[in-house]
Amino acid sequence: EIVLTQSPATLSLSPGARATLSCRASQTVGNHLSWFQQKRGQAPRLLIFDASDRPTGVPARFSGSGSGTDFTLTISSLEPEDFAIYYCLQRSSWPLTFGGGTRVEIK
Amino acid sequence: QLVESGGGVVQPGGSLRLSCEASAFTLSGYAVHWVRQAPGKGLEWLAVILYDGTNKYYADSVKGRFSISRDISLNTVYLRMDSLTSEDSAIYYCVRDATALDLWGQGILVTVSS
Q1: ∠ CA B55-B57-B62 to the nearest 5 degrees?
Q2: What are residue A66's phi and psi, to 5 degrees?
Q3: What are the helix (H) ranges across chain A?
Q4: In tens digits, what is the pLDDT along chain A, a chain of 107 residues?
C-alpha cells in the first residue's frame, strides 16, 4: 500500500499569508493525487484533483503542483474561511490511501 | 446529493448495513467509495464499487468483514459491515467518483459499544 506523508502536521499562519503544504508518497503515484479541505463538523471538500486541476467553484488562490512522489498544495493568500484541515489522497493504486492531514490554524 | 442512512449504535460483534442514496444523478454511471473518520482522527478509505458494478476493492482493515454493493433500481449503494469492533466507530461517508472523489455525503455515525 502506498503511504502518504503530509507535512507539517500544523501550520500556524496569519490571514493574508501564503500557505505551502506538502504530501510525499512512498512510491510514485503519477499525477493521481487529490487534495481535500475539511472544516470542523463538515464532510471533506475536493479542492484539487490530478495534482493540479481545480474543480469548478474552487477559488483560484488554491493551487496544486507536483508529480511522482512529491506534491504541494499552495494557498496564495489565506482567507479566514481557509483555516481548516487539509488531506491528500492517492488514487493511483488500490487501496486508496489518505495522508494524515495538515491543520492550518490562525497564528 | 448523496444521503447516508442506517447508522447507529451496535454491539461489538454485531452487524450493520449502511445505505447511500443518490438524488439528481444516476449512481450506476460512477464509482462510489466509502470513507470513514474515527473521532478526532483522519480520513480512512474503506471500499469502492466501480461503475460496472462488478469490480470492488477494499482496505485491508475491512477486507472479509465489509461488503459493498449497489441496487441500480433504488439508485443506492450499500456497505454491509460484520464483526464490528470499537475500532469501527466512526463517521462513514459515501463519495461519488467522477474523475475524482468530487461529491461527499454528509456522513453517518456508527458507534460500536456494549
Answers
A1: 145
A2: 115, 170
A3: none
A4: 999 999 999 999 999 999 999 999 999 999 999 999 999 999 999 999 999 999 999 999 999 999 999 999 999 999 999 999 999 999 999 999 999 999 999 99
C-alpha cell at A43: 464532510
Cell of A31: 499525477
Among B90, B96, B78, which Cα is nearest to B1's? B96
B73 φ/ψ angles, rounded to the nearest 5 degrees: -65, -30
Q: Does A7 touch chain B (CB under 8 A)?
A: no
- List the single best residue of A46, A54, A92, A97 to mutate versus B (max B Cβ within 10 A): A46
Q: Is B102 exposed, middle or buried (0-12, 13-18, 19+ CB in 10 A)?
A: middle
CB contact under 8 A, B100 and A46: yes
**Cβ pair A101:B33 closer than 8 A:** no
